Amino acid sequence: MATEAAPMDEKAKRMRDLLSSFYAPDPSISTSGSSISASFDNINSTSFDADQYMDLMIKKSNLEVLLQRHVQMAAEIKNLDTDLQMLVYENYNKFISATDTIKRMKSNIFGMEGNMDQLLQKIMSVQSRSDGVNTSLFEKREHIEKLHRTRNLLRKVQFIYDLPARLQKCIKSETYGDAVRFYIGAMPILKVYGDTSFQDCRRASEEAIEIIIKNLQTKLFSDSESIQARAEAAVLLKQLDVPVDSLKDKLLEKLEQSLDGLQIKPEEASLLAEQNDSSNDAESNEQHPAKIHEDAVRGFSEAMRAYREIFPDSEERLFKLARALTAMHFENMDLYIRKRVSAADFLRIFRIIWEDVVLMDEVLPEAELSDLSAEAAQVTVKKFVARTFSHLEQDISDTILKFDINQKEAVEEEVLKVVLEASKKAGLQGTTDIFQDFRQLLDENIGIFVKMKDLIIGWIQNGFQDFFRSLEAQFLVLSGKTSSSKEIEGGLVEGKSSDKIHAGLILVLAQLSVFVEQKVIPRVSEEIAASFSGGNSQAFENGPAFIPGELCRVFHAASEKLLQHYIDTRTQKISVLLRKRFKTPNWVKHKEPREVHMYVDMFLHELEEVGKEVKQVLPQGTFRKHKRTDSNGSNTTTSSRSNTLHNDKMTRSNSQRARSQLFETHLAKLFKQKVEIFTKVEFTQESVVTTTVKLCLKSLQEYVRLQTFNRSGFQQIQLDIQFLKAPLKETVEDEAAIDFLLDEVIVAASERCLDVIPLEPPILDKLIQAKLAKSKEHNNNNNTVSS
Predict the structure, then answer these.
(1) How far, in Å, CA of 130 to CA of 118, rounded?
(2) Residue 774: CA atoms inside 13 Å, Cβ hemisphere, count?
């Protein structure tokens, strides 16, 4: 047993040492560390004592713990054996690969030493021959170099002798830049030999340079010279060591004064925006205003570049000048777009401004003109979008107001229909045009427009939202519903009082609101969804994006308001007529009726005008007359009352008949089916006319209740109402309600009558027939006169 245990212990120790040597990063550190932390129970230590460790384990542990430790150590030994085996295999492969590599290197290097010796012999041969060539050509090369230096010296001497003549030629041709370059190039020689060999040349050259300096100074302060030419003169003077610092303020003031000529003024913007497509020759293009402006700005930029080099301490002032010109450009652009400007012209002017900014930014990048221009461009484009909507609103308002509507034209010449169709066309065509303009903004490839694309889409959506809201408010102003345009932000037309506004115009506005709700808003919504969807949230800070549902509700409510306003306006006019009729006479002393009163004709005439107006503007509805027979008991009661009156005529006195008739009328009302008088107004001809008639009859009833009648007055009311029945029934669609209201007028008159005795039916029919004959004769005469 002992003989077998010793080899196993030696094997384990050897494996442990191998693993420790492989995994220890530094053997010295590992050894020192193990010696310091050595302990009798540390199995990985180099000073580990197995016997002492076993004695300790036997003393401390029982049999079960020893068996567990045995199993654990056996597993560890097995793992170590496996790891060692893998380690040996991996290193063995590396050793084999290294051995093969070394063998290949030996075979490749074999014979290289001889080749290197041959190469060295050839290099030595080439070197010796090269030295021989250099030795043989040395004297000739030295001679050639000497001749070349002599030639260059002669050229310089010739240049010095020719310098005065060159300077004089430059003075004549005004090429002062070449003259300064020639003189500065000759200065080193003139300084050394100017007092001896080249004395005359130096004196003549200095005289020519003095003339050049004077000419440059004259050019520097000449108002006729361009900015770029003056800047070049200043640079040349500084190169000639002429002090120009004292001229800095004057030069910069001249540069500042030139800003006025570089502005794109509103009255000149249209000329700059024109495209010179008719001529293609270079001479005509040079005379084009846009080309002239570009050259002027380019000269201004070059002047700033030159002044920056000449006066380094003037950078801040130059920055201010560049920013001032940029700000002036956008201020003038704001003035330019206040009038009607197409998107194409707007973009042409914007491109010119942006090119100016790029030119100046290349010269003065520290001025941050791009950032300044980007902020100003956002403001300008936003204003252009908003003013485009304002112009469209103005167009629609002008279309409505350009027709001089009076009472006769509105009825006879169908002006209302013309106004409505023109307004519809203005709305549809206007939205189409501004969509085309806005597409040009989005298609523009200037960098700033590409960055602003989402903002522009947001402004367009928000602009449509505000436009329709403003248009709805504008309709209310035009109709007189709103008293003043001050209540409406951005209103374009002063509010008018209702008595100065033709009622037909209100009806046109009501129908136009329906058209906007049903046609314009859905079409705009489709266009936005197709081409202008998305947008930046920053564009919606001042209001919501385009919400078609909300706008449809707004215009639906506006159309109902305007339609009711039209009915109210017409009813008020007729009510004034009725009020005058009932307040003027003394009804207690009224004479016996001899004919239908003239106010009936006026009343019917007003209703006729209403009918003609609605026929021009509103569609015809489903016409179903609600006759009196639709109400239970109404015909029976009326018939029985008529038979009773006819029988009473033979057997009762007048007073008894009147009391009986009044009693039967009240009794009939108890058995009548309740009639709806005021129903919702529809956008049809019949509904509007019927509602107007109902309101007028209700007003007539109230005026009757405010008066006291004698017998003749009551009979006059009876005659007038009886005459109204036939024409009103032909006009309206709800005969039952009209019959009811006419009966209510008679009942109200009877209640306010001191002696209720109605006219006999024969007399009533006779007076009505007389009135009809008279009306027919009057109409025939009018037709004869008109023909």
Answers:
(1) 19
(2) 11
pLDDT band, residue 644 (cuts 50/70/90): very low
Q: Look at residue 113 and tell me whether its pLDDT is greater than 80.
A: no
Higher pLDDT, 543 or 353: 353
Cβ distance 601 to 609 under 8 Å? no
Mean pLDDT, range 2-28, rounded to an integer: 56
Mean pLDDT of 594-608: 89
Q: What string of DSSP letters covers 216-264? A: HHHHHT-TTS-HHHHHHHHHHHHHTT---GGGHHHHHHHHHHTHHHH--
* Per-residue model confidence as pLDDT tens digits over 220-242: 777 667 666 777 777 777 777 77
User: Which residue type does 18 have?
Assistant: L
CA dihedral 748, 751, 753, 757 (to 10 degrees): 90
Q: Are the CB atoms for 750 and 714 separated by under 8 Å?
A: yes
Higher pLDDT, 669 or 436: 436
618: alpha, beta or left, given left = phi > 0 and alpha = psi -120 to 50? beta
**What type of residue sits at position 240?**
L
Q: Is the pTM for the entire model greater than 0.85?
A: no
CA distance 546 to 525: 8
Mapping DSSP to helix (H, G, I), strand (E, B) and coil, where does residue 709 land? strand
Query: What is the Cα–Cα distance from 781 to 787, expressed in whole angstroms?
Result: 10
Spell out the residues 6+ positions from residue 738 whose beta carbon is closer than 8 angstroms to its own. Answer: 693, 694, 697, 725, 728, 729, 732
Predicted confidence band of residue 32 (pLDDT cuts 50, 70, 90): very low
DSSP letter assigned to residue 753? B
Residue 43 scores a pLDDT above 90 = no
- What is the rounded distance in angstroms from the CA atom of residue 380 to the CA atom of residue 745? 66
Burial class (CB in 10 A: 0-12, 13-18, 19+), 537: exposed
What is the torsional sign of CA 115, 121, 125, 131?
positive
Separation between Cα atoms, residue 16 and residue 6, nearest integer Å: 15
* 33-64 burial: b if 16+ Cβ within 10 Å, else e: ebeeeeeeeeeebeebeeeeeeeeeeeeeeee
CB of 480 within 8 A of CB of 498? Answer: yes
DSSP string, 109-140: HTTHHHHHHHHHHHHHHHHHHHHHHHHHHHHH
Calculate the average pLDDT of the chain.
78
b/e code 311-331 from CB counts within 10 Å (16+ = b): beebeebbbebbbebbebbbe
